[in-house]
Amino acid sequence: MHGLGRTVAALRRNRSATDYRPGVTVVTVNWNSLPFLSVMLDATRAMSPPDTEILVVDNGSTDGSRDYLATRRDVRVARLPLNFGHGIALDLALPTVDTEFVAILDVDAFPINDKWLSVSVAALESGALVAGAHMHRNFIHPCFFVTRTKLIHDLGLTFRPFGRTQSRFRVAPLFLDVAEALCQRLIIYGGGSAVLHRFPITSLKGPGMAGAVFGGLVYHNQGATWGERKGIAPSDWHEAVGHHLGTFGIVDQAE
After folding, report:
1. Confidence (pLDDT) at 227
2. Residue 99 DSSP label
3. Distance between CA 175 and CA 167 in Å, rounded?
4. Residue 12 falls inside a structural domain
5. Which of 23, 25, 190, 212 keeps 20 to 30 A from 116, CA to CA?
6. DSSP letter for each residue of 101-124
7. Closest CA to 101 of 112, 86, 117, 115
8. 231 in any annotated domain
9. This prediction's pTM
10. Residues 172-227: pLDDT tens digits?
11. 213 CB-contact burial (10 Å; exposed 0-12 / middle 13-18 / buried 19+)
12. Which residues 6+ apart lie within 8 Å of 113 measured at CB?
């Protein structure tokens, strides 16, 4: 892992403000999640400005995702040889982004409002350092996370989680979720929690945080790719796609 960390650090580079192209790159990480990926890409393309770049980081999928992505001429793909996990995959991909803004979406999230990017960018232009989904605690969750690309590059920010999660046998003394440590650093850098522009949950299906809509802008199934071992019913995903995207002709390939 230390060797991989050095590789990530070597990929990072500082840029001057003039090095960044206008616009937004939307980044998602995929691992054997083809039915969700296809919906996410179709919805993102339908709900975003035409010049929006989409980057998929594929974590060594074996479910046909790579063949499907080869057919998407409107998508840039970073193919990793194996599943590095969500945070590390983002860390490896983000140094290749050169648009002014970057938006991160989970593979089982999708925009439901064509203002999702303009509202997020407006929050950044009004002084926030990051805008997106607020689930709990004091951070923006990267199921829906928008910031300035230069900020990530210049500060060398990482999306890797910190500490250990709870197990059956012990409770970890500290665990910071993907992007949580990053947001805490931004709070320190920016001088307070006001640097986080939180889009709250405006509707929720459950159980837990599954089926949340943030700010009326982005839907997140949370756990769709985990299967029913986490109690997430596939019917909830089908229902959400039909409800939010049916009028746009976007088809749920998982049906």
Report:
1. 52
2. E
3. 12
4. yes
5. 190
6. EEEEE-TTEEE-STTHHHHHHHHH
7. 117
8. no
9. 0.89
10. 567 788 899 999 999 999 999 999 999 999 999 888 888 999 999 999 998 766 65
11. buried
12. 47, 216, 217, 218
Handedness of CA 126, 132, 135, 136 (dihedral sign): negative
Q: How far apart are CA 125 and CA 115, in angstroms?
A: 15
Model confidence pLDDT, tens digit, residues 10-35: 444 455 556 899 999 999 999 999 99
Which CATH number characterizes residue 77's domain? 3.90.550.10
The residue segments making up the domain with residue 137 are: 2-200
Please state the domain count of the chain: 1
114 and 136 Cβ atoms separated by less than 8 Å: no
- Rounded to whole angstroms, how far apart are CA atoms 156 and 169? 34
Name, in order, each residue with C-beta under 8 angstroms of 23's C-beta and a sequence gap of 6 or more.
Answer: 49, 51, 52, 53, 99, 100, 101
Rounded-to-integer distance, Cα 43 and Cα 112, Å: 7
Q: Which residues contact 88 (CB under 8 A, 6 or more apart)?
A: 4, 8, 159, 160
**DSSP per residue over 126-147, as a string?**
TT-SEEEE--STTS-EEEEEEE
Taking the alpha carbons at both ends of the chain, their separation in whole angstroms is: 38
Q: Residue 253: inside a domain, yes or no?
A: no
Please tell me the predicted confidence (pLDDT) of residue 172: 56
